[in-house]
Amino acid sequence: MAEEAQVVDRQPLPLGQNLTEPIYNAILKAIDEDADRLDLLLSLLHPSDIADLLERLPNQHRGVVLHKVPEDLLGGVLSNVESAVQERLLEEMSAEEVNAAVAKLPSDDVADLLQNMSDEQAIATLRLIPEIQQALLNYEEDTAGGLMQLETLAVPQTWTVGRLMDYLRDSSQKLPNNIATIYITDPTRKLLGTLSLNRLVQISDDKRLSDVMRTDPFTVLPEEPQKDVAQMFEKYDLIALAVVDKNNRLLGQITIDDVMDVILEEHHYEMMHQAGVSDEEDLFGSTMHTTQKRLPWLVINLFTAILASVVISMFEGTIQELVALAVLMPIVASMGGNAGTQTLTVTIRGLAQKKITSKNAYALLKKEFLVGSFNGLVLGTLLAGGTAIVYGNQNLGLVIFAATIANHIFAAIAGNLIPLILERRGIDPAIASGILITTVTDVMGFFTFLGLAAWVLL
Amino acid sequence: MAEEAQVVDRQPLPLGQNLTEPIYNAILKAIDEDADRLDLLLSLLHPSDIADLLERLPNQHRGVVLHKVPEDLLGGVLSNVESAVQERLLEEMSAEEVNAAVAKLPSDDVADLLQNMSDEQAIATLRLIPEIQQALLNYEEDTAGGLMQLETLAVPQTWTVGRLMDYLRDSSQKLPNNIATIYITDPTRKLLGTLSLNRLVQISDDKRLSDVMRTDPFTVLPEEPQKDVAQMFEKYDLIALAVVDKNNRLLGQITIDDVMDVILEEHHYEMMHQAGVSDEEDLFGSTMHTTQKRLPWLVINLFTAILASVVISMFEGTIQELVALAVLMPIVASMGGNAGTQTLTVTIRGLAQKKITSKNAYALLKKEFLVGSFNGLVLGTLLAGGTAIVYGNQNLGLVIFAATIANHIFAAIAGNLIPLILERRGIDPAIASGILITTVTDVMGFFTFLGLAAWVLL
Q1: Which DSSP string do the residues of A45-86 spell out, in sequence order?
Q2: Which chain A residues contact residue B277 at CB under 8 A?
Q3: ipTM here
Q4: What CATH architecture is A154-256?
Q5: pLDDT digits (tens, 9 = 90+) for A58-112
Q6: What does the domain layout of chain A look like in residue ranges?
Q7: A268 vs B309: CB contact, 8 Å cut-off?
């Protein structure tokens, strides 16, 4: 029976209940009124759902719940909450509590938690798991090295399938959590091949690993950006990926659950940054904190909006003579902004998927130019007709017609070139493109419309 | 040796080269000049990279390359290209070619391809794999049923670990590609439990499956939306998930590689729809096609922009008396639009992650109201100071101060409530929120600024 104990220990955590609305409400009530009931309710939840619960709770209640979480689940809970909440929870914990919580976590999760720990907590953790310091903290967070875990199962190529199966079953071995891919290495840890568990169980015991292993496995260097790692997993349907050094020595592995997190993170990063919202913003953070995080981008926008307003002020005399211009000019600018954002989105997506190369960039620019011209033509015709009728002024219609087409062409060119130029300069095109494109279309929209009006109408 | 043949057949495809820029250029050259060289180059590529190549090629070259792809890779290539390109490739193929290509694909990939086939191709495929028709085509594409594959490994609970291992090694069995999770069912296919391969290889042969299986596995009904399925995989770090009917009978399984695709798809869907770009738009599609796909949203925008312009026209007299108003009014509207988009993004994200509940919605609205007020106060002060100095008119500064604060408050409330209301009405908040929020902030921005000016200044 003792032989089996190790295996049972490796069984996944109990599944537990989802955090449904009734359970959430019951927990809220129990926090205020009934500590025993809170214990019972928490014991029903999966660690990921306890993490969800902690994220949703107002800050003053988080500490109460945190100290009720069973010790063996605490590590899983901590590594599942988002960074802003993690930081607040760690503040509530002593170094000893943190140490107990992280003891069973994979090394990559521990390294991530280290970022948010106090000095005292971090020192205690590094004393407990010293290999993390040398191995993981040297890599940037958003690289393959920052994603990888040190725990791998590496075995010699001289073993047979039978010997490997015996080794796996021998519960005196402390096996890593994730053995979906088995790495076959030489005595210097040079990677010779891999064998998936899927395949292993279909091969007879007498085969030697060197005869059945895959000899050309995908690998990454630790410096590789996490974006590219995620793309490899997605493209080649990987479950795990070996991280090796320049001499092809096995350093660790990246597993698909970490890559899922990266993809979601990149997604949120892109979405949030386009709106100028910090990705570390806690949905339930304090008002002042949120205000400060969002203000800088709005201040930048203040200045770009003033730029557009300076263009308008150049034509104050023109507007004074024909107030209809002030009424119509935001339409030209607004439509250009949206057309530019369309081009921008398609271009950023193409860049992210690496489908835009120096070979086809010019063809795409030409296409966007044509699309912008056609859309401008259609919209300009609609707008000019409406304007000529409403204001009884054919020349005004002609001006708005020409300005709409011109601004759609500017929008198409800018929407295509801005992300390409940013990418070439090493700036993530998702961040700054949005504000740049609306500035271009506002400025050019006001300038062409008011400029043409000054020239044709006055 | 014959006994091993089946196992070797299940080995993954050869890894091959990535589609680097030099290889891509060499292929472009070979298409025009050298058919033999093209064969050689294609034989170097992984099916996923051939799919990439086909996406990148201009349409007239796609057919040439398609007919050079080795038959055993063709299914993998077809299921890896995006839908718009898939459609064009299938047009080039006969029903027999399609049949040969899909023969080795998992059922979910075949069902996806069916959507883009001609009637003749679809009929031939359904004749080849008739179970797909009943089992998969009844489910919506974006549900668990639309994601699942029929191929699963289900075994009786009375088996021992040893018997299961023997079964796996017995190569006369045709095993599904993905056996990371083994399902344990009764004779009516009712799901009793699961066992991961990870765990299986660590258990001794004499144990019965009923004693070692996990008896409360995660399951989904086929009607479940794919978004929720993806969230389950992410939250609980799943590798595979059983799809069951209402009587808990096993229908199929969803594997993590399909979920990765869903996450990326949802991401692009959200990004593209916010800009009013169709997600089926081919980066290399024809100009007319692209124009038509983008135009509808721009036409909607034309009308919402006219709405803002109608508000301005209500104050033509006011602008005539003080042209500075025409210069300044776009600043107020633009900043409100950006502040509203910030609130919108945070709210949409919170909704997607299910962190906003009826319990905390009011607290969040209150917080956004306060954030909007503070940001409006800071920006209004900056803007009012600048305006008073530039125009030497303190009252004009006062008007822009008040209008900026008011519009930021409108932006915060609309940015919070619009996605909540859309979500409650069953409309994806990612689609229409962007255009609604800028309409609100334009209309309210122009109205408050010009209205206050008419009242205070004239």
Answers
A1: B-HHHHHHHHHHS-HHHHHHHHTTS-HHHHHHHHHHS-HHHH
A2: 342, 345-346
A3: 0.75
A4: Roll (3.10)
A5: 878 888 899 889 888 899 999 999 888 898 899 999 999 999 998 888 888 888 8
A6: 10-139, 154-256, 287-457
A7: no
